[in-house]
Amino acid sequence: MQHKKDWYKDLVIYQIYPKSFKDGNHDGTGDLKGMTEKLDYLKELGINAIWLSPVYASPNVDNGYDVSDYFRIMEEFGTMEDWEAFRDGAHERGIAVIMDLVLNHTSDLHDWFLMSRSSKDNPYSDYYIWRDPDPQGGPPNNWMSVFGGSAWEYVPERDQYYLHLFAREQPDLNWDNAQTRDRIFDIIRFWNAKGVDGYRVDAISYLDKGLDGRADMNEVIGTAACVNLEGTHRYIKEMSAKTFAPDNLMSVGEVNINNEQDLINYSSSSSGEFNMSIPFILPIVEIETWSPEKMKRDLKKEYEVLKKDGWWARFLSNHDKPRQVSLYGNDGAYWKESAKMLASYLHTLPGTPFIYQGEELGMTNIQYSSIQEYDDIDTRNYYETMLQKGLSPQSALAEAQRISRDNARTPMQWDSSAYGGFSDHRPWLGVNPNYKTINAEQQMADETSVFCFYQKLIALRKEHPLMAHGDFQMCCDETGPVIAYSRSLNGETWLAVHNFSDQNQVLCHEKIHTDTPVILSNYENVQLHSKTVMLRAYESVILKLA
Ligand code: GLC
Ligand code: CA
Question: Which of 39, 161, 229, 518 has the greatest number of C-beta atoms within 10 Å?
Answer without folding.
Answer: 161
